[in-house]
Amino acid sequence: MKVMDAQEIMDMIPNRYPICYIDYVDELVPGEEITATKNVTINESFFRGHFPNNPVMPGVLIIETLAQAASILILKSPEFENKTAYLGAIHQAKFRKVVRPGDVLKLHIVMEKKKSNMGIVKAAALVDGKKACTAELMFAVYDRDEKI
After folding, report:
1. Active site located where (predicted)?
2. Distance CA 64, CA 146 (A)
């Protein structure tokens, strides 16, 4: 059962094609944790150049996908509703498995800390239950119209 579909996600975060990577949210406990899904397809634009004849999802885009799922979690926290979350730091990122077309990325994010306009999460991207990437991500949260 989907908790949020693609349109609901785009209503919440500013990312759009070709860089909106979350297909749907599976589970959500606002302010605590989220599980979301990214279906990796051969039609992704980045596979044309990364790498021809050996398509691999770039690690930086796996981090971006985790960051989008984390921003949904953060923005579903009551104190951060109707705001925008910006990635502020990436700590302890580890890439453990190559992600290829046909893989389904399950993104699991757990809120570690929240204060004033910041959040820190533990993030994991899994393929077939195996960790593809883990990281700690820090966010700064601002009003949607505020220029930073």
Report:
1. 50
2. 22
Cβ contact 76:28 at 8 Å: yes
Contact (Cβ atoms closer than 8 angstroms) between residue 57 and residue 119: no
- Interatomic CA distance for residues 36 and 134, integer angstroms: 15
Report the relative pairing of strands 33-39 and 104-115 from DSSP bridges.
antiparallel
Q: Please compute Rg for the chain using Cα positions.
A: 15
In the 3-class helix/strand/coil scheme, how is 6-40 assigned residue by residue? HHHHHHHCCCCCCCCCCCEEEEEECCCEEEEEEEC
Q: Which pLDDT tens digit goes with each residue over 42-99?
A: 999 999 999 989 999 999 999 999 999 999 999 998 889 889 999 999 999 999 999 9
Query: What are the residue boundaries of the structural domains of the chain, listed by start?
Result: 4-141
C-alpha–C-alpha distance, residues 137 and 146, integer Å: 22
Q: Does domain 4-141 bear CATH number 3.10.129.10?
A: yes
Q: How far is CA 62 from the centre of its chain?
A: 8
Catalytic center residues:
50
CA distance 3 to 130: 23
